[in-house]
């Protein structure tokens, strides 16, 4: 036994790194071999020839030892890894490659293949040849003893290296073959090798030799056998963690069988209760607030050199516990200690397990455990966990108790198209636009593995029920099956001729089903990759597929508006479910196979009886395409995701909406329930994966305001009111001071695109996708007139300064001038080649400026005659907004080319180009004095510019989505902005202490935005943009004050008012117990 362990130390003698080893060409090998054989090698080294991979096995030998190379095309990854290692001549490369695995997994076949591969080393890139090999086997005398290994390898090496052979001959220590392994290595290998290096006798390449030894466990070792038998005499032992374990199961079986063990019987229930009570006692006695005596909350744990080591915090205290008293207070102390130990990821699964145990006994405690588990996940997946005091300061303070809880947000860095939970394991799998499949630890939100191989966007992912395999579909037309343990591709399923849109595993993991744009559904053998069946019948792209839990049926959805049910064995069509009015986007079976749910481009979900095909419920509430829909495991709920950016939870039996989970800032692309139904995961085009609490139904506040993105805003002339239009078809008038709703104007049947006040504030005009222009009473909100005439969407509207005229621009490419009193058309201005996106009256009413989508031009019209006075050329993208200065001398235009241009209205001369936005400019406006211009952009920012010099004066940030509309108040002190995030914000435009960008030292890839009370830490994107990390720092950037989730929409000092108020969050730090005072968070 000691000899074998010494053999492993041979790595310290770097044979493979020799500087003087020679490749003997095949023309010389025979001569040297014959010479060495005749003189001493065969007679004195006594090698084992049957242990050589080249030995020709015959008769009984061949029956006992089956040596063969790997079948071509198999084990490609592991063979490639070994070959790459062997040819790596760098000093960083390890000297030994250990291949291990269960019996029958092919280790010997791999070793035999590698020995054959490097025996001649004929590949151009080879830097190494086989120096020696030994294939152990207990079947033969010559292959079962350790003393045969060294002398056989020495024999082989001498045949390869003449310098070594000569040194070996000169040593004359051949009697060592009768000694132990240690002596053989010293006298026959190490000594002669060092001598051969010093002679400089050989000078050819390669300079490295590979030694292959297979099946060391086949070596006969009496000492090992004796040790195993002696251990079996004992029944219990203690491992390194002081756990008491039994050597063999029979002892445990005996102790827990009352009839057999009699007086030695161990009662599971009694002992578990005793252990639990003891642990509770230890927890109650040992857990306390600030258990590690952390002095300040201003630093991260990683920077706190005074922090005790995990050994200081007794792990027994924090990894076992119990219930009611614990939940009242010590649960937080326990999470604190677990975070210090680096075990925070265990908190959620342990609390979830406890919830399952008590659900049938105490519903109240079960609910408390569910909430504790949700909070544990909220903390462990948050950057707040980087500083333990922020369990209390940040996570507890920002814990959103009264809404659908977002517990975690995972930043992917690319549009996420698909997401799935991994069975009972705390893992999430996502597929993204960059072609990557990412595996996440769902307990702490960290990446576990990234699976690379697809050459185009990943569209769908699924996990086998045992969690061992992942299947992914892609725009590269392929389906890939991955091993979750190794991250390697097990199979590439090729056959689809167009992008694969959906994949699913059968419940037993033996089959994969895929759907594709090629209008087919394919069934594959998950192990071999062979196609078992192709289901054809859809007349448009197949968008989604799913298997019933019993594996008997397949359901598919298609752009042809149909849901089809197939026999999974025969491929025969069983039923066609018709009812959706647009294409199908997603389908799923309930676990019991009774129901099918489908989502569609018609904005609805439908629950079908899987047997009869009848509709049981229509799920209505989404305001845009339903992109993904699925059942909870118990079949009682359905979760859906939509392009309207929301995730919604439905009651299957009633069809009623139970919850709306909001937070994504782009379309939701995929949703899934966890296996226990306590979590929902969603993926989005906003490049995030989010985890939500689904275990406790949350009561939602009824919020006043728009329920969809805001498209347009305007100030009344006196600055007391704000009007906004929205995609929810409504117009709302707000009190500009308090943010309260004064009037809701309803009448449009489609989304409102543009709104404006008349100069005297007595009228409001609005345009809509319903092709109409509506005029409203500004005081009462009553509809006064409907102006009809446009043949397509009305995109933009405006009043003349004297209120006599209304001008509108439309997707019918025309501009219309209306009499505001009679509603009659006065003029139709035609000339644009695309949608008219923006219009503006000059202050004196003589001119109209208009911008369009397709021709990138700004046109100046005579308002009386309708004639074009000037055409302004310069933009390289669609013109989205135009505005006259008060004196009419200048025109500002914004464009999707990210620029704002300032023109001389009379001559059309380009005066200034304002650049700075990182996205398309959506709206522009002049201040009343003409000295400033404000612009909004799809980069989510509002910018204020000096209209004379073009210099950027201010950047106003806080919106969570595109800014769609901006305007100045008449006095120029305030700016109002509307956004796709469904909020209206009022900004202070008078002060100049706006956010400066400061580079964070040490190249951390972050920047900081300064504000009066704190600094918002921001990450810089590769494109130059940035986003908030959520950390608020002290003004000098040294202290971590509090972590506020970026989705909380923190109100910045410049943001005077946000409408509705529920659309933002406030932070008051004046009396907060921070830094050394953080210990005052808890006063017993």
TrEMBL record:
Q: Which SUPFAM superfamilies match?
A: P-loop containing nucleoside triphosphate hydrolases (SSF52540), Quinoprotein alcohol dehydrogenase-like (SSF50998), WD40 repeat-like (SSF50978)
Q: Name one Pfam family in it.
A: WD40
InterPro entries, from UniProt? Answer: NPHP3-like_N, P-loop_NTPase, PQQ_b-propeller_rpt, Quinoprotein_ADH-like_sf, WD40/YVTN_repeat-like_dom_sf, WD40_PAC1, WD40_repeat_CS, WD40_repeat_dom_sf
Start and end residues of each Nephrocystin 3-like N-terminal domain: 83-234
Sorted UniProt keywords: Repeat, WD repeat
Superkingdom, taxonomy of origin? Eukaryota
Enumerate the WD repeat regions by residue range: 416-450, 451-492, 493-534, 535-576, 577-618, 619-660, 661-702, 703-744, 745-786, 787-828, 829-871, 872-913, 914-955, 956-997
Q: Extract the PROSITE patterns matched here.
A: WD_REPEATS_1, WD_REPEATS_2, WD_REPEATS_REGION
Quote the protein name from its UniProt record.
Answer: Nephrocystin 3-like N-terminal domain-containing protein
The species this protein was found in = Candolleomyces eurysporus
């Amino acid at each position: 036994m000691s000899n074998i362990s010494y053999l492993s130390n041979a790595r310290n003698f770097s044979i493979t790194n020799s500087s003087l080893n020679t490749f003997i060409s095949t023309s010389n090998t025979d001569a040297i071999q014959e010479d060495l054989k005749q003189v001493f090698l065969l007679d004195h080294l006594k090698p084992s020839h049957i242990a050589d991979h080249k030995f020709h096995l015959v008769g009984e030998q061949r029956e006992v030892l089956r040596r063969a190379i790997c079948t071509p095309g198999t084990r490609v990854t592991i063979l490639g890894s070994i070959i790459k290692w062997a040819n790596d001549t760098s000093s960083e490369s390890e000297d030994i490659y250990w291949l291990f695995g269960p019996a029958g997994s092919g280790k010997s076949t791999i070793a035999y293949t590698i020995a054959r591969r490097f025996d001649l080393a004929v590949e151009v890139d080879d830097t190494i040849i086989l120096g020696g090999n030994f294939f152990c086997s207990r079947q033969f005398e010559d292959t079962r003893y350790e003393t045969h290994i060294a002398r056989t390898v020495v024999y082989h090496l001498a045949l390869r290296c003449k310098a070594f052979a000569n040194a070996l001959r000169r040593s004359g220590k051949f009697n060592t073959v009768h000694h132990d392994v240690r002596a053989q290595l010293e006298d026959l290998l190490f000594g002669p090798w060092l001598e051969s290096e010093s002679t400089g006798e050989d000078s050819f390449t390669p300079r490295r030799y590979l030694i292959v030894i297979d099946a060391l466990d086949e070596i006969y070792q009496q000492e090992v056998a004796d040790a195993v038998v002696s251990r079996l005499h004992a029944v219990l032992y203690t491992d390194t963690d002081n756990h008491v374990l039994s050597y063999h199961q029979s002892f445990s079986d005996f102790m827990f069988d009352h009839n057999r063990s009699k007086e030695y019987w161990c009662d599971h229930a009694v002992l578990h209760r005793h252990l639990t009570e003891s642990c509770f006692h230890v927890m109650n006695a040992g857990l306390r607030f600030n258990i590690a005596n952390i002095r300040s909350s201003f630093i991260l744990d990683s920077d706190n050199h005074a922090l005790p080591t995990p050994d200081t915090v007794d792990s027994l205290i924090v990894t076992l516990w119990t219930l009611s008293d614990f939940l009242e207070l010590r649960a937080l102390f326990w999470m604190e200690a677990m975070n210090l130990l680096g075990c925070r990821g265990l908190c959620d699964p342990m609390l979830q397990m406890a919830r399952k145990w008590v659900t049938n006994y105490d519903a109240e405690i079960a609910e408390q455990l569910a909430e504790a588990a949700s909070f544990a996940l909220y903390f462990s997946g948050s950057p707040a966990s980087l500083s333990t005091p922020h369990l209390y300061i940040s996570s507890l303070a920002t814990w959103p108790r009264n809404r659908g809880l977002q517990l975690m947000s995972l930043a992917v860095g690319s549009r996420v198209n698909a997401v799935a939970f991994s069975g009972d394991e705390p893992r999430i799998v996502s597929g993204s636009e960059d072609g990557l499949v990412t595996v996440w630890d769902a307990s702490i939100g960290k990446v576990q593995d990234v699976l690379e191989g697809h050459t185009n966007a990943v569209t769908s992912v699924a996990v086998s029920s045992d969690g061992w395999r992942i299947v992914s579909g892609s725009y590269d037309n392929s389906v890939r099956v991955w091993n979750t343990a190794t991250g390697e591709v097990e199979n590439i399923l090729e056959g689809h001729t167009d992008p694969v849109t959906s994949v699913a595993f059968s419940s037993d993991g033996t089959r994969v089903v895929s759907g594709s744009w090629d209008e087919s559904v394919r069934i594959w053998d998950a192990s071999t990759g062979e196609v078992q069946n192709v289901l054809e019948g859809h007349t448009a792209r197949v968008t989604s597929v799913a298997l019933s839990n019993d594996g008997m049926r397949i359901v598919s959805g298609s752009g042809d508006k149909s849901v089809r049910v197939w026999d999974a064995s025969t491929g025969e069509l069983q039923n066609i479910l018709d009812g959706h009015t647009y294409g199908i986007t997603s389908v799923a079976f309930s676990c019991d196979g009774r129901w099918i749910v489908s989502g569609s481009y018609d904005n609805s979900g439908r629950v079908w009886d899987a047997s009869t095909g009848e509709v049981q419920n229509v799920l209505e509430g989404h305001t845009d395409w339903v992109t993904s829909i699925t059942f909870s495991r118990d079949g009682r709920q359905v979760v859906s995701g939509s392009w309207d950016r929301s995730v919604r939870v439905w009651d299957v039996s009633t069809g009623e909406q139970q919850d709306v989970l909001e937070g994504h800032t782009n379309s939701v692309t995929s949703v899934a329930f966890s296996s226990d139904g306590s979590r929902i995961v969603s993926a989005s085009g906003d490049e995030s994966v989010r985890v939500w609490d689904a275990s406790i139904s949350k009561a939602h506040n009824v919020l006043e305001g728009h329920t969809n993105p805001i498209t347009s805003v305007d100030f009344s002339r006196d600055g007391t009111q704000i009007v906004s239009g929205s995609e929810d078809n409504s117009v709302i008038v707000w009190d500009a001071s308090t943010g309260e709703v004064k009037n809701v104007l309803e009448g449009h049947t489609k989304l409102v695109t543009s709104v404006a006040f008349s100069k005297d504030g007595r009228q409001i005009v609005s345009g809509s996708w319903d092709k109409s222009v509506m005029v409203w009473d500004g005081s009462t909100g009553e509809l006064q007139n409907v102006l009809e005439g446009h043949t397509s969407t009305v995109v933009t509207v405006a009043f003349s300064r004297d209120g006599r005229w209304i001008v509108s621009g439309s997707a019918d490419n025309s501009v219309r001038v209306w009499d505001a009193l009679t509603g009659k058309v006065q003029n139709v201005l035609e000339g644009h080649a695309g949608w008219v996106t923006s219009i503006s009256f000059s202050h004196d009413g003589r001119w109209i400026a208009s911008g369009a989508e397709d021709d990138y031009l700004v046109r100046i019209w005579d308002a009386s005659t309708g004639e074009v006075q000037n055409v302004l050329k310069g933009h390289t993208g669609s013109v989205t907004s135009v505005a006259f200065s008060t004196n009419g001398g200048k025109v500002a235009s914004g464009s999707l080319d990210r620029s704002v241009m300032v023109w001389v209205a009379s001559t059309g001369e380009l005066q200034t180009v304002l650049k700075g936005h990182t996205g398309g400019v959506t709206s522009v406006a002049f201040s009343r004095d003409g000295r400033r211009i404000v612009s909004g952009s799809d980069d989510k920012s509002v910018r204020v510019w000096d209209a004379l010099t073009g210099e950027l004066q201010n950047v106003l940030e806080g919106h969570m989505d595109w800014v769609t509309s901006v305007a100045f108040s008449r006095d120029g002190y305030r700016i109002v902005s509307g956004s796709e995030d469904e909020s209206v914000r009022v900004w202070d435009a008078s002060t100049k202490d706006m956010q400066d960008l400061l580079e964070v030292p040490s190249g951390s890839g972050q920047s900081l935005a300064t504000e009066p009370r704190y600094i918002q830490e921001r990450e810089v994107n590769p494109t130059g943009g940035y986003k908030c990390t959520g950390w608020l720092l002290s003004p000098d950037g040294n202290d971590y004050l509090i972590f506020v989730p970026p989705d909380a929409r923190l109100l910045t000092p410049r943001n005077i008012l946000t409408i509705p108020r529920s659309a933002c969050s406030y932070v008051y730090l004046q009396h907060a117990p921070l830094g050394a005072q953080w210990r005052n968070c808890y006063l017993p």
